[in-house]
Amino acid sequence: MTKLSQPIGFLVVIFVLLSCHLTNAQLNKSEAQALIGRVIPQKAQFFVVESLDSTAPKDLFEIESKNQKIILKGNNGVAVASALYYYLTEYCHCQITWNGVNLDLPVKLPQVPTKITQKTPYQYRYYLNYCTFNYSMSWWNWERWQKEIDWMAMHGINMPLAITGEEYTWREVYNEMGFSDNDLKDFFSGPAYFSWFWMGNLDGWGGPLPVSWMKSHKDLQVKIVQRERALGMKPVLPAFTGHVPAAFKKKYPNAKLKATNWTNGFGDTYILDSEDPLFAELGKKFINKQTKLFGSDHLYSADTFNENEPPTDEPAYLSKLSARIYEGMRQADPDAVWVMQGWLFYSDRKFWKAPQIEALLSAVPNDKMLLLDLATEIEPVWKRTDAFYGKPWIWNMLNNFGGNVNLFGRMDGVASGPALALNDPNSKNLQGIGLTMEAIEQNPVIYELMMQHTWQTTPVDLNEWLVKYAKNRYKTDDKSLVEAWQVLRQTVYNGKDIRDGAESIITGRPTFDSTTVWTRTKLNYKPKDLLPAWDLFVEASKKGIDSDGFQYDLVDITRQVLANHALVLQKKWKNSFKAKDTAQFKKDSQAFIDLIADMDELLATRKDFMLGPWISSARSWGNTPAEKALYEQNARDLITLWGDANNPLHEYSNRQWSGLLNDFYKPRWQQFFVELNKALVANREPNLKTFDANIRTWEWNWVKTQKNFPTTTKGNSHQVALKMYKKYRNEL
């Protein structure tokens, strides 16, 4: 099918129609003032919130000083919050990130000499990925969500994915259709696996899900969407894509069901054929129930084939399928706009060629669909799809997979990519930018950089921006730290060679290999090239620089250097083993174990890098010992085995966390070294097959264990980092 060029007038009509679905809400002054009170309670009385024209097509804000007060004007709460953050960063040299906060405000707030006006070129600023809700957010309570929503508003986010509580909606729908909770017990997954349950990849794993969880998270979702809307955001809620419980075939024996399998160690799931009349009926029931519970802004997320191939690549089939899915939404909500993650076009490029993509998209009116180019900084799918064949679309940065802990990002690409696309006539109906990482709470610099685009149309000048970033983060003009960031820019953040950040071999299941399936150790720089940044941070530490962000970065850079060094130590013990030098092997393998213990000690100085809070927050949702045990098992499983003892995704979500290093990774390697040492003493080959079987059993037992881990930090970040520097720097 040849794409005909669209008349300019037609595109304007589409833009106007689509804009109606994200009309700027009236400014809620009390909510905006409350946000200021939460962020800077000690200075909130010096800020005045005023409204700007709410009919403006895109968000804008103004900042000025009057009568010793700072006047923040915006057309909605997000604009006002963005004005606040602009003032804090530009005039007070402050910063708010997940990993380091500097709100050391001057005693007297700086006045704004001339009025500041900022307008965004982007209608939409999207936030979140299905996976974020589990790799990072599985155990969040309202207090943590409130912080995140404030962060979102200050960074210009106006279109967040909001899927908390979806399981409650489905339970209500199915109960009303005659399904008992017993019918559904093998359907709903455990809390750490909702992302993949919602996307139709698995059923039941990590369950059975307590009804108490469903009720508590329905209440949590009500708070989330209420706050988001009060600040002027338009939450994207889920829609039906065909995934139904196995019990469906018993209640509706004539229903057209297709068994499908994600091929990652889980059982089949069942998809209701979109041709079946029940499909539209169920889709309508779900949206109606959801709207009653949580309201609606007419934006619905639906992904039909997340890492599952359709039964045929025939364009006509795909077109009809797409039309029916949209029709299911439209019947429930005539104003529905389908928001589609474009991950399938990236992850399964072999199937999704131009004819298939165009067929899937063209069946839905342009003003009723919005495409998320989910990993544009890695591969801009828009460039090979004629900018999604006329559909409005959003430029997104993915950056992190699985919540792995590493220093990584495409700094130069992120600094320029959105603006270059915005100004490229071939990008056609580009309407927004967004963050679609699988997990947050790492590499804060990349996310601060990405959201800098919200209020500008040109590429970010990194040489200037890094100076400001360092000053805001570290409360100092020390040029050596800017120099360190230029080293980081050319090494860990150079965006070359690899898709996502490298892990450390210590997080892999014990092996002689230098990499494993999900512990990939290939770096995008030479390890020695990172050392000057470490040197500069250690010297800055000795000067007394001590902001929260500095402490985090000092620990993170030290962690990365040690994580890289593990590969060198692995090579040493591997060589001594092959040489059958028992004494040297014991020495080299002990050095490897000591490195893991040293990393654990280092990471224990920062909550950002601790297992304890993850486990503790999981258990906090339980009302009974059995519920607490279930949630702890979910929390342990996701970041280690992912599934059962033989799951192929083990280590996909590995974390370099204090507690996990000493309690999981270190004992695994110790058991491996015991087997290797026995082999050396007996002059035989190590029995790796037996070891592999035994270690899988040990890992599964670890997942099922209950144990408290520290939730408060231990040690001083500066002192421990310096200790590691003195121990390892000469060796490196």
Automatic annotation (TrEMBL):
Keyword vocabulary terms for this entry: Hydrolase
InterPro entries named in the record: GH, Hex-like_dom2, NAGLU, NAGLU_C, NAGLU_N, NAGLU_tim-barrel
Keyword hit for Hydrolase: yes
Domain Alpha-N-acetylglucosaminidase tim-barrel: 125-456
Highest taxon above the source species: Bacteria
Classification via Pfam families: NAGLU, NAGLU_C, NAGLU_N
Alpha-N-acetylglucosaminidase N-terminal domain residues: 31-110
PROSITE patterns linked: PROKAR_LIPOPROTEIN
UniProt domain Alpha-N-acetylglucosaminidase C-terminal: residue ranges: 465-727
Gene3D superfamilies hit by this protein: Chitobiase/beta-hexosaminidase domain 2-like (3.30.379.10), Glycosidases (3.20.20.80), N-acetyl-b-d-glucoasminidase (1.20.120.670)
Name of this protein: Alpha-N-acetylglucosaminidase
Species annotation: Arcicella gelida
The organism's taxonomic lineage, starting at the top: Bacteria, Pseudomonadati, Bacteroidota, Cytophagia, Cytophagales
